[in-house]
Amino acid sequence: MAKKGAGKKMKAESTAAVRATISFPAEVYETLETIAKQKKVSLAWVVREAAEQYLAEKWPLLRGQGGMRP
After folding, report:
1. CA distance linking residue 23 with residue 29, whole number of Å
2. pLDDT tens-digit profile of 12-62?
3. Does residue 8 belong to any structural domain of this protein?
4. Is position 31 within any domain?
5. What is the pLDDT of residues 36-45, one digit of tens each?
6. What is the value of pTM for the model shown?
7. How far apart are CA 57 and CA 22, in angstroms?
8. With 90 as the cut, is the pLDDT of residue 9 above it?
9. 42 within some domain
10. What stretch of H or E contains 30?
């Protein structure tokens, strides 16, 4: 029996984004939506920006590694 996905071509390794599914409390989600609307950007952009800022503050030595902006 063939493995699931066998025969599919593998994508070349790249710096492409990785998709994640995240659950937020309703109040947090609503706040993120409000910020996104005010900034006229996607909710995903707001979450990515927040995650990058968090990493820059908490782990400054990782700055410039693995896709974080310099």
Report:
1. 9
2. 556 788 999 999 999 999 999 999 999 999 999 999 999 999 988 988 776
3. no
4. yes
5. 999 999 999 9
6. 0.64
7. 21
8. no
9. yes
10. helix 26-39
Specify if 45 maps to a domain. yes
The number of domains in the chain is 1
Q: Which residue from 46, 14, 55, 18 is spatially nearest to 68, judged by alpha carbons?
A: 55
What percentage of the chain carries pLDDT values higher than 70? 67
For the chain, the distance separating the N- and C-terminal CA atoms, rounded to the nearest angstrom, is: 47
- For residue 48, what are the domain limits? 26-62
- Give the Cα separation of 42 and 35 in Å (integer): 9
Alpha carbon distance 69, 60 (integer Å): 12
**Treating both helix axes as pointing N-terminal to C-terminal, what angle do 26-39 and 43-58 enclose, rounded to 10 degrees?**
100
Rounded to whole angstroms, how far apart are CA atoms 38 and 31?
11
Residue type, 31: T
